[in-house]
Design a protein that fits this description.
The protein is α+β, with helices and mostly antiparallel strands and about 120 residues long. It has one domain: Ribosomal Protein L22, Chain A (Alpha-Beta Complex), CATH 3.90.470. It is about 35% helix and about 35% strand. It has 4 helices and 6 strands, in the order E-H-H-H-H-E-E-E-E-E. The strands form 2 sheets. The protein has a 3-stranded antiparallel β-sheet. A 3-stranded antiparallel β-sheet has the order 2-3-4, with helices on one face. Helix 1 crosses helix 4.
Amino acid sequence: MRTLSGVGLDVIEIDRIRKLARRNRRFLSRVFTPQEVRYCNSKNEKWQHFAVRFAAKEAVWKALSRGGVRLKNISVARNGQGKPYVYLNGRKASHIHISLSHSQKYAAAVAVIIK
């Protein structure tokens, strides 16, 4: 039987991520994997994509009860249909489900852990 073992939610202002990245050149490399940076930089509205991935990392971190996992060890990718999924420590975490959303000003993510 599968049971719910964690839920996390995060909402962030997109401009906050933009300002952090411009103020601290190492911010992106400390938080995002090289693949995530490449993906986000390839988009027209790259800050929305960075922000929603940051929100997803925070949501997963919260769902894991902040269990000693660094944000960079949580990464977000998309399958061929565009559905987002999570990698944890370099391995696909099929027990973690995420939903992402953003507007012009805010990005949000929800993570649910099912075991």
